[in-house]
Amino acid sequence: MKATNSDGEIRPCLSHFKFYIGQTGHKEDNPLLDFNRLKDGSELGFEFTISGLDRILTNDNNISLIILYYERVGQVGFKVNNLWGIHLDKEDMKNSYKTYRLTLAKTYLDLAERQYDMYLNYPLVKIMAFQGQLDVNALDENTLSHWMTWSQHNELLCVKIPMIPKVED
Length: 169
Known about the structure:
2 helices, 7 strands, four-stranded antiparallel beta sheet, single chain
């Protein structure tokens, strides 16, 4: 399935986003300001709010959000870790905003073996908006590669996640 860049007319606004840690038996960091607090077994989560939904007028008045969690892997390229699709229908589009909360990953100390350096090796999150309903299961490898490699007109957010966990001896 080829998904093209969307028109600016259907683009909502990202009015809020934050990372959080959910840890069993530990105080939850919400919002997460210090990524050094990631421990073995921590759940790294992401909360965001999309605004201006009631001001977007499309033919069928529905859009899809794609959330892509991926990594830059040295000079090799990119690796998809997870992909979510959220469909907003007519009823959702009547609201002025909508907030979502996702668990991106469960953190294990083997991440330290990946040696994130925030230059050539780092994780990212990207949020994009598309007109109509988009089936994430029908996306092909070329489309995903294009989304990870280049900025998109329909991109609401693309952010590096500053995860450089320390190895505990």
